[in-house]
Amino acid sequence: MWTVPKPKYGPEVCAEGQISVNIGGVRLVLFGDVLSRFPESRLAELLTCSKKNYKGISSLCDDFDPNRKEFYFDRDPDAFRCILDVYYFDEIHIKNGICPICFIKEMEFWKIDPHVLDECCKSYLSEKEEELKEISSKVTVILEDLEVERCVTRGQKCQRFFWLLMEKPGSSLAARVIAIASFLSVLISAVVMCVGTIPELQVTDAEGKLVEHPTLDAIETACMAWFSAEYVLRLSSAPNKLHFAFSIMNMIDFMAIIPFYVVLTLTYLGTASMMELANVQQAIQALRIMRIARIFKLARHSAGLQTLTYALKKSLKELGLLLMYMGVGIFVFSSLAYTMEQSHPETLFRSIPHSFWWAIITMTTVGYGDIYPKTTLGKCNAAVSFLCGVIAIALPIHPIINNFVIFYNKQQVLEIAAKRKVELMEKKSSPEMKRRKSEEQDTIKSDTE
């Protein structure tokens, strides 16, 4: 229901207290009482502006026809229809097909406060602003990769060369080969760590203990030498070494390297009495187990793993609900199982905390069979817990997959948009560069003459 008069479309002549505007070829007659609701807006200023004050009128509109008393604006008429809503409903909704960033500029032109945007449009606008920031950051990275000429000294050029070589696989063929070699080194190191635990492939040392085969140990050492050299080169060539050192992926790289050198130090520099201590041996074993952190290095070379990590991060709410639901179910069903199984003389449920393990493996559909109900009520409780566990696990799968697909497609679009923006910037700058070069050549010729 309209509580105030609607704007008139068409060739009607505006009466007293009305103004006629032409927005991109669309003519409207607006009522002064409606426009006065926002006195600081551009349309309200036109209403109060004198028809004889051509200087003031020209500062508010693109053109003015005094015979028809019509103000002309070279603006988007679809966006203006949305702008008009604020005079009637005190809020604005951005219609589909209108760029929210351009619409904000339209609101600034018409002098409308951005706070009148509805909450749904504000969230949509913030999402688009984040996308623009991501595009801007990607453009900055691409331009930094292209503008090697900015490096003045030989040291800066060398640092830039090694940074592109170690961090940007798409910059050159050598960088792509190094990225593949790094990826294969991670896989080989992981395979060697697994194969080294096979008793048939181990050898006996002087004390009669099984240790890794010397060949596997040599491969392990070669991989660690590669990882160390790679990390040192990346750190030394990083533009911001502090940011590099405290990055998550680089911290994983460091944690994957340091246990090798700690074990090496304790093994070859430690005294015999020191190595006989049980705590030292346990520490060495724990550091060897930390070698599994190397598998996370694969995430640096895989966009899919990075996308999956982001999808899980965006789905923390769903995962939290899953854990809460599973926690409540485990507590309820383990308590019921303990109570129902107490009537059986050979019950396997000794306490409620001991029953937690049964509830976990039942609701997650694992079912090791080491603990199970023996009474009829206990079996019915197990069936219900199994069904609840299946439902609980299945619920967050769709949001996680949806977040994964959305982020992956978004990254592809942002990559294309960033590359297109760089191409446009290069096309715009190429005539400017040619003009500067021609001016420099002209100045050189004039100087020689």
TrEMBL record:
Task: Report the residue ranges that make up the BTB domain in this protein.
Answer: 17-127
By its UniProt entry, which Pfam families does this protein fall under? Answer: BTB_2, Ion_trans
InterPro entries named in the record: BTB/POZ_dom, Ion_trans_dom, K_chnl_volt-dep_Kv, K_chnl_volt-dep_Kv5/Kv9, KCNF1-like_BTB_POZ, SKP1/BTB/POZ_sf, T1-type_BTB, VG_K_chnl
Membrane topology of this protein: Multi-pass membrane protein
Which Gene Ontology CC terms are recorded?
voltage-gated potassium channel complex
Q: Which keywords does the record carry?
A: Cell membrane, Ion channel, Ion transport, Membrane, Potassium, Potassium channel, Potassium transport, Transmembrane, Transmembrane helix, Transport, Voltage-gated channel
Enumerate the subcellular locations listed in this protein's record, separating them with semicolons.
Cell membrane
Which residue ranges does UniProt annotate as crossing the membrane?
173-198, 244-269, 319-340, 352-371, 383-401
- GO terms assigned for molecular function: voltage-gated potassium channel activity
Segments of this protein annotated with the region Disordered: 426-449
The UniProt entry's GO biological process terms, in alphabetical order, are: action potential; protein homooligomerization
SUPFAM superfamilies registered for this protein in UniProt = POZ domain (SSF54695), Voltage-gated potassium channels (SSF81324)
Note whether Membrane occurs among the keywords: yes
Name this protein carries in UniProt: BTB domain-containing protein
